[in-house]
């Protein structure tokens, strides 16, 4: 990805989604395009129109974080979107030294695996920023067995969602889950612009999946911390799962995902049945 192009497309897409009325501006003037004009964003961010136009072109060398955060507030970006904007700006800055290629972690420490194995009643796994399933406890591996064994998924959540037919049966809210996968991948791509394997994954999905291409063009960014997942497991049936994402200190780029013990008695019973089979 070219970070300048990414910044231009991202800011234009965020600008287009905001109405003048949402920002307290006069929306009665006739408009050829939806959303705010550049001069309106500049006014809200308290910068000149030329300066904002420069930022929107991706020409942000020397632009301070204070100004970028002012633009984020003008565009009503949330925390993840603001982090994404700042990450793109960092990627555009000239390098002070040659950058070594970045590779995602592909293994977990024994201590992390021990933590996973200690969670006997809750599915748990560790993923990197490519969405590879690196390690899990027995219940986590059983829950996501289709993704781990599918020849198109190959143990990668993004590949499984967009390239494996079975994902549309497994994820009961496939469209929403697909939206989230792309939004998270785009956020990770901005954080790791030198990760060649992540770029290759995005190129592969763009080439092979029209639903992925359509979602990638929307420039949404998101980072889940807590949500719910509704899945259909081929052995135990429908499951309604809570979902928590935890950062692993000292292991950059790795996250621990857990489906905590459920208040739903049906899901609890079905997870227990799945655990017996592992």
TrEMBL record:
<feature type="domain" description="HTH cro/C1-type">
    <location>
        <begin position="10"/>
        <end position="82"/>
    </location>
</feature>
<dbReference type="GO" id="GO:0003677">
    <property type="term" value="F:DNA binding"/>
</dbReference>
<dbReference type="Pfam" id="PF17765">
    <property type="entry name" value="MLTR_LBD"/>
</dbReference>
<dbReference type="InterPro" id="IPR041413">
    <property type="entry name" value="MLTR_LBD"/>
</dbReference>
<protein>
    <submittedName>
        <fullName>Helix-turn-helix domain-containing protein</fullName>
    </submittedName>
</protein>
<dbReference type="InterPro" id="IPR001387">
    <property type="entry name" value="Cro/C1-type_HTH"/>
</dbReference>
<dbReference type="InterPro" id="IPR010982">
    <property type="entry name" value="Lambda_DNA-bd_dom_sf"/>
</dbReference>
<dbReference type="Pfam" id="PF13560">
    <property type="entry name" value="HTH_31"/>
</dbReference>
């Amino acid at each position: 990805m070219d970070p300048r192009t990414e910044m231009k497309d991202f800011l234009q897409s965020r600008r287009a989604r905001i109405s003048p009325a949402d920002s307290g501006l006069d929306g009665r003037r006739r408009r050829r395009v939806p959303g705010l004009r550049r001069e309106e964003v500049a006014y809200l961010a308290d910068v000149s129109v030329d300066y904002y136009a420069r930022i929107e072109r991706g020409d942000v060398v020397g632009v301070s974080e204070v100004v970028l955060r002012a633009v984020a507030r003008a565009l009503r970006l949330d925390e993840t979107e603001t982090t994404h904007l700042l990450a793109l700006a960092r990627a555009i800055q000239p390098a002070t030294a040659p950058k070594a290629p970045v590779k995602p972690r592909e293994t977990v420490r024994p201590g992390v695996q021990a933590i996973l194995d200690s969670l006997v009643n809750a599915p748990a796994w560790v993923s990197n920023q490519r969405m590879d399933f690196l390690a899990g406890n027995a219940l986590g591996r059983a829950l996501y067995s289709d993704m781990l064994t599918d020849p198109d998924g190959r143990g990668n959540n993004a590949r499984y969602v967009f390239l494996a037919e079975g994902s549309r049966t497994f994820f009961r809210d496939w469209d929403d889950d697909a939206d989230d996968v792309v939004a998270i991948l785009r956020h990770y791509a901005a954080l790791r612009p030198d990760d060649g394997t992540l770029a290759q994954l995005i190129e592969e999905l763009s080439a092979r999946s029209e639903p992925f291409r359509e979602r990638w063009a929307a420039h949404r960014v998101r980072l889940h911390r807590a949500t719910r997942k509704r899945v259909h497991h081929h052995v135990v049936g429908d499951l309604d799962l809570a979902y928590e994402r935890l950062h692993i200190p000292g292991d950059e780029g790795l996250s621990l995902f857990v489906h905590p013990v459920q208040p739903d008695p049906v899901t609890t019973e079905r997870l227990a049945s799945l655990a017996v089979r592992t």
